[in-house]
Write a structure and sequence with these properties.
Layout (H helix, E strand, L loop, with lengths): L1 E4 L12 H9 L2 E4 L6 H10 L3 E3 L7 H4 L5 E6 L2 E6 L5 H11 L4 E3 L7 E3 L6 E3 L12 E7 L5 E7 L4 E7 L4
Parallel strand pairs: 1-2, 2-3, 5-6, 6-8
Antiparallel strand pairs: 1-9, 4-5, 7-8, 9-10, 10-11
Amino acid sequence: MLVVVSDTHSTDGHRLTNRTLDAVREADLVVHAGDFMRESVLDAFIDEADTFLAVYGNNDGSEIRDRIPAARNVTYGGVEFAVTHTRRGGNTALSMFGRERGADAVIFGHSHRPGFDGTGPIPLLNPGSHAQPRGNRKAHAELEELPDGGLRGRLVTVDGETFETFRITPER
C-alpha cells in the first residue's frame, strides 16, 4: 500500500493517530507532500515508515530543504507520480508540472483540502492534512495495486472513514 500525507505543521512530532498511524506503519511506501515545520518532525516520519519519500513545503526551513527536494518523481504499482507541495497557477500549473515530469498523476499538498480530481489532463491528488485540517476533515490517502494494472485509491479520515474513492491508471 502507498500512503500519502501532507501538511503536518508540527513542532513536536509526526502527529499521526488512529487509522493514519496504522496506515503509515502498514505501508510499503509513504509519501509526504511537504510542510513538516521542524526537522524533528521529518525525522519522526522517517522513524515511523519503512520506506519514506518527501518534498519540502513553503513552511519548511533550510534544515529540511537541505535534506529533501522541492519536487520528485515516485513510482508505485506502475504509476509514475510527480510530487510537489504546490505550484502557483492552481490545477493548470499542477497538470503542467506533471506532464513536464512525465508523470501519470500529481501528488500535492498546501491547501489542506483533501481531494482527487480526475477530470483534467492529468489526475491530481491532495491527501489533505492529518494534523491541521484548517476547516477540512483530517485525512490521508491510501492507494493499492490492482491486479489488472493501476491503483485503487481512497481518501480516509484519521478515524478510518473512507469519504472518496478513485482509480489511477498509467498512461503508458
